[in-house]
# Entry
Amino acid sequence: MAANVGGIDKILRIVVGAGLIGSTVAGLLPVWGYIGIVPLATGLMGWCPAYTLLGIKTCPAKK
# Structure
Protein backbone atom coordinates (compact mmCIF):
# COMPACT_ATOMS: atom_id res chain seq x y z
CA MET A 1 0.00 0.00 0.00
CA ALA A 2 1.71 3.13 -1.23
CA ALA A 3 0.68 6.40 0.43
CA ASN A 4 -1.86 8.36 -1.59
CA VAL A 5 -3.12 10.89 0.98
CA GLY A 6 -1.12 14.12 1.30
CA GLY A 7 -0.47 16.55 4.16
CA ILE A 8 -3.48 18.87 4.20
CA ASP A 9 -5.79 16.05 3.16
CA LYS A 10 -4.43 13.92 6.00
CA ILE A 11 -4.94 16.67 8.59
CA LEU A 12 -8.50 17.37 7.43
CA ARG A 13 -9.40 13.68 7.56
CA ILE A 14 -8.05 13.34 11.12
CA VAL A 15 -9.85 16.49 12.34
CA VAL A 16 -13.19 15.59 10.71
CA GLY A 17 -13.00 11.97 11.88
CA ALA A 18 -12.13 12.92 15.46
CA GLY A 19 -14.85 15.59 15.42
CA LEU A 20 -17.53 13.14 14.31
CA ILE A 21 -16.50 10.54 16.87
CA GLY A 22 -16.21 13.14 19.63
CA SER A 23 -19.63 14.58 18.83
CA THR A 24 -21.16 11.12 18.93
CA VAL A 25 -19.54 10.29 22.26
CA ALA A 26 -20.76 13.64 23.65
CA GLY A 27 -24.30 12.82 22.54
CA LEU A 28 -24.55 15.58 19.93
CA LEU A 29 -24.85 13.13 17.02
CA PRO A 30 -26.63 9.79 16.78
CA VAL A 31 -24.80 6.50 16.26
CA TRP A 32 -24.09 7.24 12.57
CA GLY A 33 -21.39 9.66 13.77
CA TYR A 34 -19.10 6.70 14.33
CA ILE A 35 -18.57 6.76 10.55
CA GLY A 36 -15.82 9.18 11.56
CA ILE A 37 -13.67 6.10 12.09
CA VAL A 38 -13.22 5.89 8.30
CA PRO A 39 -11.64 9.32 7.68
CA LEU A 40 -9.70 9.05 10.92
CA ALA A 41 -8.20 5.69 9.93
CA THR A 42 -7.40 6.74 6.36
CA GLY A 43 -5.80 9.95 7.63
CA LEU A 44 -3.64 8.09 10.14
CA MET A 45 -2.63 5.41 7.61
CA GLY A 46 -2.03 7.86 4.77
CA TRP A 47 -3.80 5.53 2.35
CA CYS A 48 -7.36 5.66 1.03
CA PRO A 49 -8.85 2.72 -0.91
CA ALA A 50 -11.28 5.03 -2.75
CA TYR A 51 -8.35 7.14 -3.98
CA THR A 52 -6.69 3.98 -5.29
CA LEU A 53 -9.82 2.99 -7.23
CA LEU A 54 -10.21 6.51 -8.66
CA GLY A 55 -6.51 7.01 -9.42
CA ILE A 56 -6.21 10.05 -7.15
CA LYS A 57 -3.02 10.88 -5.26
CA THR A 58 -2.71 13.99 -3.06
CA CYS A 59 0.69 13.26 -1.57
CA PRO A 60 3.76 14.85 -3.15
CA ALA A 61 5.74 12.87 -5.72
CA LYS A 62 8.93 11.25 -4.44
CA LYS A 63 12.13 12.13 -6.25
